Amino acid sequence: MPKSFSFIDDYLAYLLARSSYLVSEQFHHQIQIQGWSVNYWRILASLSDEDGLTLTQLNQRVLFKQPTLSKLIVKMEQEKLLIRHKDETDKRAIKITISPQGRTLVADLLAQAKAHENTVLADYSQKQQQLLKGMLRRLVLHLQE
Amino acid sequence: MPKSFSFIDDYLAYLLARSSYLVSEQFHHQIQIQGWSVNYWRILASLSDEDGLTLTQLNQRVLFKQPTLSKLIVKMEQEKLLIRHKDETDKRAIKITISPQGRTLVADLLAQAKAHENTVLADYSQKQQQLLKGMLRRLVLHLQE
DNA sequence: AGTAGTTGTATTCATTTTCATATAAAAATG
DNA sequence: CATTTTTATATGAAAATGAATACAACTACT
To answer: What is the C-alpha R_g of chain A?
Structure first.
């Protein structure tokens, strides 16, 4: 006889939202203790892989609303963490790169994030970790057509 | 040679945040088209499993900030979707139950949510679905000590 | 080229969220 | 039991968010 779950415990969207929250919770707290905002972290982490994205491209990674990201980017430029460049091939667009200060910060945060992930997944074997991440990667690919 | 991923594509927190976002995106839009807020949906869905939770208990499910939930609950009571009862055994607490109107609404939304999940997981076999959900359930259990 | 539709970003303003704190009740302590 | 600490909820001021919109630049079509 199959185990019976309550609605939310058998509802994929809830399981994802909850695990997402729980996985990030402590690390976000850790960031805030250091005086940084979670939004800054998400933006910098997204740029760390691929610098020079346009605002729209960056937004597809950080998953904010466009006006929210627009304003954050301006603020982060004022704080010398990012640089906004005009895109010469498309004059509507702005390209965003990380400043040297931003690079120093994100290098530090990336290391902390990896360390935190290691503690979160401490009880998972390498194989289990890859299985979990692999399933999520496939789900993401599947959903963003 | 193992495939190499960019930071965010190998970072569990990001994979969860992104898949969570993608899975819920269309359904949230669907809710908003009908004139409801996503927050209302989350609150009602959480109560649908277990009515009569206190605000704190409910908040552990919906994952808001406490003042946010306090205000939403008051608003939803004014709109006759919920009822706030004094808890007689703990006079600080309030217990929250769904009103008849709320029940009608949540029944409708639950059906829509299930239908949406079915389309999201259409390409997954029953076995794969259980594997995915099972891994997430274990992750959640693992993280909430 | 001229027009119509689309895309990329910024801005405004109303709403929502949150931090900090208040308050009252319960629990723990000595 | 009196006192301190913790817990549950509410509230007000400040900050963040987002829907709507504006505008400029690009694309597609005739």
So the answer is: 18
Residues of chain A with pLDDT under 50: none
* CA atom of A91 to C1′ atom of C5, Å: 19
CATH number belonging to the domain at B37-143, selected among 3.20.20.70, 1.10.10.10, 3.40.30.10, 3.10.150.10: 1.10.10.10
User: Scanning every residue of chain B, which has its alpha carbon at the shortest distance from the alpha carbon of A109?
Assistant: B7
- Choose the closest CB to A8 out of B45, B121, B143: B45
pLDDT in tens, A96-134: 999 999 999 999 999 999 999 999 999 999 999 999 999
Count of C-beta atoms within a 10 Å radius of residue B15: 24
* Domain spans, chain A: 37-143
Count CB-CB contacts under 10 A for residue A70.
Answer: 14
Q: Taking CA atoms, what residue in A is nearest to B50?
A: A6
Q: Do A23 and B16 touch (CB under 8 A)?
A: yes
Amino acid identity for residue B78 in this structure: Q
Q: Which of B14, B29, B32, B98 to mutate to test the interface with A (most CBs of A within 10 A)?
A: B14
Other residues' Cβ atoms within 10 Å of the Cβ of residue A1: 3
Task: Write down the pLDDT at residue A113.
Answer: 98
Interchain contact, A120 vs B137, CB within 8 Å: no
Which of B99-126 are b and which e, b meaning 16 or more Cβ less than 10 Å from the residue's Cβ? eeebbebbeebbeebeebbeebbeebee
Query: Shortest CA distance to B129 belongs to which of A19, A138, A120, A128?
Result: A138
Torsions phi, psi for B95 (to 5 deg): -105, 140
Cα(B40)–Cα(B35) distance, integer angstroms: 11
Q: Is the pLDDT of residue B3 over 80?
A: no
